[in-house]
Prior knowledge:
By secondary structure, this protein is of the alpha+beta class. The chain contains 9 helices and 11 strands. Strands 4, 5, 6, 7, 8 and 9 form a 6-stranded mixed beta sheet that branches. The protein has a 3-stranded antiparallel beta sheet with strand order 1-2-3, with no helix packed on it. The chain has a two-stranded antiparallel ribbon with strand order 10-11. Bound molecules: zinc ion. Residues 32, 34-35, 37, 51, 53-54, 56 line the site of zinc ion.
Amino acid sequence: MNISVLNNRFSTQQRCISHLEKLRWGKRKFVCPHCGSLNSTKRDNSIKHHCNGCNKDYSVLFGTIFENTRLSLTKWFQIIFIMSQSKMGVSAKEVSRLVGVKYQTAWYACHRVRCAMIDNELRLEGMVEFDEAYIGGKKRKLKKSDANKAVLSTITNKRGRGTSKVPIVGSVEKKGRVYVKIIEKLTGRNLLLMLKKIVKTDESIVFTDEFKSYKSFDNVVEHITINHSEGYGKGVRTVNTIEGFWSILKNGIKGNYRSLSKKYLPFYLVEFSFKYNNRFLESDPFTTILSNAVKEDKCFIYYKPKCDTKHIVYGSGRCKQ
Ligand SMILES: [Zn+2]
């Protein structure tokens, strides 16, 4: 896929709709998302179908990241294309300029596209590293009510306890895929919950540093602790892979977003993980995002990013738009 192919193939709203219908329902007939009936009639001059089972109308956009959108699908496809092709992320400001839409529209659409990057089925196996990092800027005096607006511009590996720092935990297969999430309290219990959720413990060896909370892994999985004070780990006995991911995340955030609010950090973590996990895949990330986009079970949809730019902090000053 390149930009001229994109513009040719998806030049009209109707072409985009047909493509999404094919992705969502394949060669099957249209399936009513309300009742599952296969018996429906297409409404004239509309993207809607009328279900003869439950008498309700639906379109292919129902329950997807495109639901209730007023933005044309050709623009949506362009936004998805730009986001899928940029290796290190692209800011909403850039997207707004490239596609020719308002900043707020671009910001909102970008978050919805990130929802279509979530991989709910991801389970790691083999040699898996765990490590934590802290995203957060210099210590600033923040009012309690501003806690969600912490400027997140740097990532450190130090176990700092600064008020504006957000702990994130990453888990990664050596030469493989990554999963990363915010864990406010790095207790043994919370880390163990993450391990059980994301790693196939029977088929894996887990590598961590000596942080005491990882001790809880000992009874559940084969667990190797790397002692940094005895010099760096050798061979596979390292947590180098996750450290590599931290540096990608750090450069990506600094380079494109400069700083983010804590509230929306999960969206960006999803984006960077998606890009990392798709880096070796043959399939086109554009197609992967589109196929995910028409699935109905997107948990972040209900997170509902609001078009409130006051929550977006750019470097030292607020975004002016
Ligand atoms: Zn129905």
